[in-house]
Amino acid sequence: TFHFMALEIRALLKGICYLAEEIFHLQSRYRGSFWRALSACFSLRWHGPLLLVCGSAYAALLDGDGQPLGLHLGLASLCELLILALGL
Questions:
Q1: Which of 5, 12, 47, 86 is the most buried (most CB within 10 A)?
Q2: What phi-psi label fits residue 33: left (phi over 0), alpha (psi between -120 and 50 degrees) or beta?
Q3: Residues 7-19, buried b or exposed e (16+ Cβ, 10 A)?
C-alpha cells in the first residue's frame, strides 16, 4: 500500500508542477478558465478515488511504529519530488 500511495503522491505532485507551468498560459490555451487548466493537469477521474483508497488503506495498515502518518507521507513526498527532479 505504501508503494501505491507513493505513486499517487507522485501523480499529485506532477500535476501541481504542470499546473504551476500552465498558469502562465491561461489566456492562450484555456481561454482564461482556471478549471480547464486544472482538469488538464490533474486526471482526478482516476487519481482522486485511487488516492483516497490508497491513503485510507495505508492509514489502516500502519503498524503503529511510533512515527506519525504525516512523517511517512512527507518522506514519501520528498522522495517522489527527488525522483521527479532527477528524471528517474
A1: 5
A2: beta
A3: bbbbbbbbbeeee
